[in-house]
Specification:
Aminopeptidase, seven-stranded mixed β-sheet, 27% strand
Length: 187
């Protein structure tokens, strides 16, 4: 796998990404349920499977705030994935919070694995954060999820340490969006 190439179009022709509407909560939860079940089946402890009712309500609130996005395959309109943003994450990232955007609950449907849709969605997220005047893309995952940690590292994310929250140890990753050529070719 090559490092994340932010010089290529971010999902243009690969994914259509738009803010999820309140009526699409079931679609977002469906994607997250599929992904969490697949991870659990493979022995990877990343998200609870199935998503709890409290988590579903939380995602509904996040959709109403305009922070959750759905990705679709452009020709068929088939749901492919989802991603959620936050603009501060002080508990995990107390340093330099105003220059970053935080990606959460990024998931691609397991049936679509192997098409590099996760890379396309991350590249779209990088574009989105740039348009929102953020210079850093930050994310985290369960530190024991070595396949996901290695995936982010292969894509060029820098490890920024581990934080402990409740019963979880989370690995933090960061991508400096100024260190790569913007997708639209501007400097």
């Amino acid at each position: 796998m090559k490092p994340l190439d932010l010089r290529r179009p971010s999902g243009a022709g690969i994914l259509d990404v738009a803010a999820a509407e309140p009526g699409e909560l079931e679609s977002v939860i469906g994607i997250l349920a599929e992904a969490s079940a697949d991870l659990a089946h493979r022995g990877i402890d990343q998200w609870p499977s199935p998503p709890s009712l409290a988590f579903q309500r939380f995602i509904g609130d996040q959709i109403r705030l305009g922070l959750v996005y759905l990705a679709r395959l452009p020709r068929s309109g088939e749901l492919a994935g989802t991603v959620r943003f936050t603009w501060r994450h002080d508990a995990f990232w107390p340093e330099d919070p105003d220059s970053a955007g935080y990606v959460h609950t990024l998931a691609i449907r397991p049936a679509l694995r192997g098409r590099q849709l996760g890379i396309a969605l991350l590249a779209w997220a990088a574009d989105h954060l740039r348009q929102c005047s953020r210079r850093l893309l930050r994310l985290d995952c369960v530190a024991g999820n070595q396949p996901l940690c290695q995936y982010y590292e292969r894509l060029g994310f820098e490890g920024r340490g581990i934080v402990s929250i409740d019963r979880y140890e989370l690995a933090r990753y960061e991508l400096d969006l100024q260190a790569v050529v913007p997708l639209n070719g501007d400097s």
